[in-house]
Amino acid sequence: MKHIILLPALALCLHFFSLQVFSQTDPNDSTIVITASRSWNSVVKEGKSITIITEDDIKNSGKKTLPDILESVPGVTVTRNGADGGLANVFIRGGQRGNVLIMVDGVKINDPMGIEKAYNISLIGLFSVERIEIVRGAMSSMYGAEASGGVINIITKGGAKGLGFSAEAGSGRSFDGVFSAGTESSFFSVARTYTNGISQAKKNLSVPSYDKDAYSNTAVTGRIKKDISDTASLNFVMNYTDSKTDLDLGAFQDDPNYTSSNKLFTSKGEFSHSLFSWWTYKAGVSYMSYARDYINPDDLINPYGDSATVYTGSNMGAEFISVFNILDIDRLTIGFELFDEKGSSTSGYYDDWSVPANPGYVVDIFKEKSVLTRSAFIHNALSIGIWNLNTGARLDSHELFGSHITWDASSSISIPVIGTVLRSSVGTGFRAPSLYELYDPAYGNPDLEPEESFIYDAGIYQEIFEGLISFDASIFKQRYKNVIEWGWAAGYENGGKESNKGAEASIALRPADFLTLAYGFTTLRYDKTVPKRPRNTHNASALVSFKGLNVMLMYLYTGARTDQSNRLASYHKLDLNARYSVNENIGLSLRCVNLTDAAYEDSYGYNTRRRSFYGGMDFRM
Predict the structure, then answer these.
(1) What are 606's strand-pairing partners?
(2) If phi over 0 gives left and psi between -120 and 50 gives alpha, with beta otherwise, what is residue 3?
(3) What's the distance, CA 109 to chain centroid?
(4) What dihedral angle (degrees, nearest 10) is formed by the CA atoms of 104, 83, 483, 73?
(5) Residues in a beta bridge with 494
(6) How many domains does the chain have?
(7) How far apart are CA 379 and CA 141, in angstroms?
(8) pLDDT band at residue 314, thresholds of 50, 70 and 90?
(9) Cα gap 474→505, rounded to integer Å
(10) 162-170 and 612-620 as β-strands: parallel, antiparallel, unpaired?
């Protein structure tokens, strides 16, 4: 507790010392990012590698789910166990999935009852998303344990005035519809998705037939902002997702009756007050609950009786953050947080013959466990002319693992005359085991220790001919120790050290007002074989805009990789999306997924969609 008090005091001393050294200049204007420093800042002033996906980007691409839009982001790898609602994971720069913090409107949705606290991102639709901010690099100093490799923050719409409706239908008896209503201070939407699907598992020649695995999802979003005065406001946001997925038993293993249902609820309330022109503070509380049910009835595939497994997890957080703006050149952020994670699970078989004296019995109970983390963090953003320096530190007092200090520093130099931005960052992180990894009776290990990491990178952004050509590239290296991994003999255990390095780059060309071309690649190198992460990925796109018609062609190349000691071949995939704005209120769309009908695998033994067509319309008033 003494450390929590001393940390901000030390930061204030360092902060005011820095003000004596540097003089005042005007900051540069650019795209604003929130996630990197937990308050507004321009991208050019951040030393981290940042990608911002806007609502227009989502519309132009025609993508409908989070993994679909992320697969073309440099440095990001997405894997899926099956199509439509199948388990999808995201990796940043080749790290573990547990090194990526995922948030919806600033609420952490990492599952305390999940392996590596991973959340199935295939369940996140893009119907009400305003922007997605992806920050690559060490972010534990700002957000804690799960952000050791990066952060993905999905920000939903707010203040979109009027009524809106959209609908789309296509291959596999797929349909989705969205209704929204908004004012200047509120927004509400409800979205419904259904598809008859394809088999999650690939066909095995020894099995005569495979059934289609359907998927449905209902998502509700709400946001309210109330201005109490010219300097104070209240904000509330909530998101609810209820989905059902037909599953198979595993790779090449069909099961006609195995299903999973997932219910995610997030909410956050925040009070913000600019007490003085140089001081703004905000206080907020957040809550997330996530329930996963797996039901497998007695049938020819599962002759052992009806089984059910339920995982229930929740996160509750409270925070108080102060932001000090001094002399227009420096911004100091000091924050305190409480974060409480809870989880439980129940599984059992239910059949008359399983236990003759009892028609139903529970074979495994994971009674509720909880863990509390108290945190204090600081972040300082200093801008002197063309030079920007961001530094941060965080103390996490974990109920089980004691105190951990993480830090990071990043810098950027913006040279507007030649359109160059140089950046670099370095930082540490740690990841505490999930409640499942610690306490599951079959696979858990209460003696696990947290992972620790050290990450650094450097990059350059260059514009040529007044933005006609722009180029962004980074090199990076990541080192991890005490890696939490699966051991066949003893369940989860701490392994040794892992490291990887690589590079990512993107280039955009605008040769004409109606044409935008883009290309990106990521290359990774490991000190040992890492499953499902390819060494090389490439993506490219061409966007043609002419008199209300936007046509985008998207190309993705994923290199060879391994999964369960099996080699997955490289593949090429083309997607096409066309959108025509009839007027300001009506739009029509047509898209094709996997235009060349490529046969490929994201995971060994699981299906992916072949060529599929969809058409839709949207209306707003």
Answers:
(1) 201
(2) alpha
(3) 9
(4) -60
(5) 484
(6) 1
(7) 8
(8) very high
(9) 6
(10) antiparallel
Facing residues of 389 across strands? 382, 411
Exposure string over 237-260, b if 16+ CB within 10 A, otherwise e:
bbbbbbbbbbbbeebbbbbbbbbb
β-strand pairing of 100-104 with 150-156: parallel
SS3 445: coil
Tokens (6 digits) for 87 = 């388990």
Boundaries of domain holding 139: 2-620
Q: Tell me the CA distances in angstroms from 592 to 54, 181, 586, 610, one per residue in order.
A: 21, 29, 21, 10
pLDDT in tens, 67-118: 999 999 999 999 999 889 999 999 999 888 899 999 999 999 999 999 999 9
| 146 φ/ψ angles, rounded to the nearest 5 degrees | -75, -10
What mean pLDDT, rounded, does the chain reach? 87
With 0-12 CB in 10 A as exposed, 13-18 as middle and 19+ as buried, what is 415?
exposed
Q: Which two tokens stand for residue 108?
A: 């952490």
Q: CB within 8 A of 316, min separation 6: which ones?
A: 285, 286, 287, 288, 339, 340, 342
Q: When comparing pLDDT for 35 and 24, which is higher? A: 35
Tell me, what's the pLDDT at 280? 94
Half-sphere exposure of 602 (CA within 13 A, CB side): 23
Other Cβ atoms less than 10 A from the Cβ of 439: the count is: 20
CB 153 within 8 A of CB 132: yes
Q: Which two tokens stand for residue 452?
A: 């620790």
CATH of the domain at 179: 2.40.170.20
pTM score, two decimals?
0.90
How far, CA to CA in Å, does 250 sit from each of 176, 262, 355, 399?
27, 19, 28, 36
Report how far residue 104's alpha carbon sits from residue 555's, in angstroms, rounded to the nearest whole number.
Answer: 28
Is residue 355's pLDDT more than 50?
no
